[in-house]
Amino acid sequence: MGLPVIAGAPSAWVQRWSHLLAPDASVLDLACGSGRHLTWFAERGHTVCGVDIDTASAAANAPLAELIQADIENGPWPLHQREFGAVVVCNYLWRPLFPRLLASLAHGGVLMYETFASGQELLGRPRRPDFLLQPGELLQVCKDLHVVAYECGRVDDPPRSVQRIVAIRTNTRDGVTLALSLK
Q: pTM for the full model?
């Protein structure tokens, strides 16, 4: 473990869609890194939980967060049967976790996912296809959720190729979908 890293600003994508969370929603930040999203949501009154292989930086930057140090690629899933009002993943991709992430969403929960996509190999790291989403891949992963927003392509500042999605696990009661407010 190295020195704690100062948390940067939360992703503009996460900030843009944060209003979709219920006021009392608990938030899971997977591969939470420095804790920038933990801090963002905690400052807005949400209970936050971060998982990362190294939680030192997150502990320094998000002292009120529940932190779980775990190797989620090689070890057991540390959040067995827990559900969250939101699951946030930025700049991380481990495809075998997709079913676990979706199962971790409570009814009405919001998935915010943003990471590198095909085309990034021309701009810089990561370059390996294992770490780059293919066109439409997040749409396929979220096919059983209500997709609110989706983008795939090149963005600037810094230049990178990304894919990002916001999707909601809709509540159903007697086969009728409850209304969701996009504000």
A: 0.86
Question: CA–CA separation, 179 vs 105, rounded Å?
Answer: 18
Answer yes or no: are the C-beta atoms of 57 and 5 closer than 8 Å.
yes
165 in Cβ contact with 147 (< 8 Å) = yes
Label residue 37 left, alpha or beta by phi (over 0 means left) and psi (-120 to 50 means alpha).
alpha
Helices (H), the chain: 12-17, 36-42, 56-61, 98-103, 137-141
Domains and CATH numbers, the chain: 12-171 (3.40.50.150)
Q: What is the pLDDT of residues 67-113, one digit of tens each?
A: 999 999 999 999 989 999 999 999 898 999 999 999 999 999 999 99
Radius of gyration of the chain (CA): 16
142 near 111, Cβ under 8 Å? yes
Collect all residues with Cβ–Cβ distance below 8 Å to 103 and sequence separation of at least 6.
83
Beta carbons of 67 and 5 less than 8 angstroms apart: no
Tokens of 101: 């992430």
- As a whole number of angstroms, the distance between CA 25 and CA 72 comes to 23
